[in-house]
Amino acid sequence: MDHELLKFIWWLLIGALLIGLVIVEGLDLGARVLLPFMQGQSGAALQPVRPASLPRRIKLLWLLALSCTLSAAWPTVGWLPGLGGLIGVLALRCEPCGQATRSLRTWTAQVIGLMPAMLIGVVLGNLLLGMPFSRCAGQVSHFHGTLSGLFRPFALLVGLVSLSMLCQLGATWAMLRGAGSLRPAARQLACRAGVVFLISFSTAALWLAADLRGYTLAEGGHSAALCMPGQWVVLPGNTGWQANFRAWPAAILAPVLAVGGTILSLCAAARGRAGLAVVASALTITAMLCCVGVALFPFIVPSSVQLSASMTVWNAASGEKTMGMMLIFASVLMPMLLAYTVGAGLTSRNRLSQVAVVDSFQHSTRPIL
User: Nearest-CA neighbor of 170 among 270, 34, 319, 71?
Assistant: First the structure.
C-alpha cells in the first residue's frame, strides 16, 4: 500500500480512537460532574455504587490504545501521548466515593471532575490557535510558552464547548441508567447542557471564521519527497482553517450534524426517550471532533512560533513498513475493542441509585422544562 495512503488511513484511525475515548470518558465525566446538581434538583440523597458508567478497564484500554498508536504512528509528536495520559489519569482519579452528599468534599470532587472535560477542549482550542514551539536541526521540540499561557480566551471557549457536550452525554446516560427521581432531574440538566453547547459552539465557529488566524500548506506540499520535518512551507492566513470546508463541500455536514445531533438530543430528552438522546449526544461529540479534524487537516500540531516546525500528517508519520504492520494489528484489535465496549455498555447495571427522596420532591408538581 502506498505510504501516503497509509498516512491518511492512520489519520482517520487515530481520529476514530480519539472519538471513542472522548465518548467513553464522557459517559463517566458528564454524569459525575452533574451528580450534585441532580441531587439538588431532586432533593434525594444519592448513593452511587460507582458513578462511572463503564468499567474503568475499558477507559484504560481506550487510553492505552490511543497513546500507543500516537507513539508508533506519529513518533515525532512525542509529548501528545503524555498529555493524553495526564487527562486520562485525572479522569480516572477523580472518583468520588461513599455517599454523595452536599458536603464540601463532594463539591470539591465535582470541581476537580470538571478538569478532564475542560482540558479536552482546551487542548483542541490550542491546536487551532497554534502551539508555541520550535524545532532545531536535531528535530527536538522546544516549548516557548507557559502553562498558564495555554488557557487563552478561545481555548477556554472550546473548553466550555467540550464540557457542555460531555455533560449532555452524561446527563442523557443518567436518564437511561438512573433510577427513580434521578431521571427527570437528569432530563432537565441534559436540556440545559445542550443549550449551552449550541451557544458556545456557535460562538466558537463565528470566532474561528471571523478573527482566528489559520495555517495552510504551500501548493505541492503533499509530495512524497517532502516527508521530512522542516521541509514544509507553511503559510499563515485567516482562511486557513476554512480552506478544507471550501475545498470539500461534504465537510459542511460535520458542523450541521453537531448542531442537529444536539437539537435531536434536546427533543428526545424532552420527550423522555433516553436511548435516542444518548445516541444523538454521541453523534454531537463525533461531529464536533470531526469539525476540528477537518479544519486542521493535514496539520497535527501547528506551530505559532516557527511555522516550518508544524507537525502534519505527512511529515510526522512513521515509516511505510511500520505503518503497514500496525494497520494489520489495528484491523483486528479495534473491532474487538469496539465490540467489548458496546457489550459492556449494554450489560452494565444501573450505577446511580436513589436512596431517599424528600417529601417535597415526591409531591412537587413543578414542570421539568
Answer: 34
- Classify residue 144 by its DSSP letter: -
CA separation for the pair 294, 4 (Å, rounded): 18
CA atoms within 13 Å, Cβ hemisphere of 241 = 25
Res. 276 pLDDT band, cuts 50 70 90: very high
Q: Is 353 in a helix, a strand, or coil? A: strand
Contacts of 89 by beta carbon, 8 Å cutoff, 6+ apart = none
Average pLDDT of the residues in 63-92: 66
Q: How far apart are CA 108 and CA 113, in angstroms?
A: 8
Neighbours of 106 (CB within 10 A): 18
- E-assigned strands of the chain? 44-48, 133-135, 141-143, 214-217, 234-237, 299-301, 311-312, 352-357
Q: Which three cell numbers stand for residue 147?
A: 502553562
Calculate the CA 273 to chain-centre distance: 24
Say which residue, 305 or 53, is predicted with more confidence.
305
Compute the residue count for the chain: 369
- The SS3 call for residue 270 is helix
Confidence of residue 348 (pLDDT cuts 50, 70, 90): low
The angle subtended at Cα 84 by Cα 11 and Cα 28, nearest 5°, is 105
pLDDT of residue 236: 64
Nearest to 169 by CA among 368, 60, 22: 22
Q: Which residues pair with 214 in a beta bridge?
A: 237
Over residues 201-223, mean pLDDT: 73
Q: How far apart are the first and last CA of the chain?
A: 55
Task: Give Cα 255 distance to the centre of its chain.
Answer: 15
Query: 190-220: string of b/e by CB count within 10 Å (b at 16+)?
Result: bbbbbebbbebbeebbeebeeebebbbbeee
Residue 35 pLDDT > 60, yes or no? yes
Q: What is the pTM of this model?
A: 0.80
Q: pLDDT band at 262, cuts 50/70/90?
A: very high
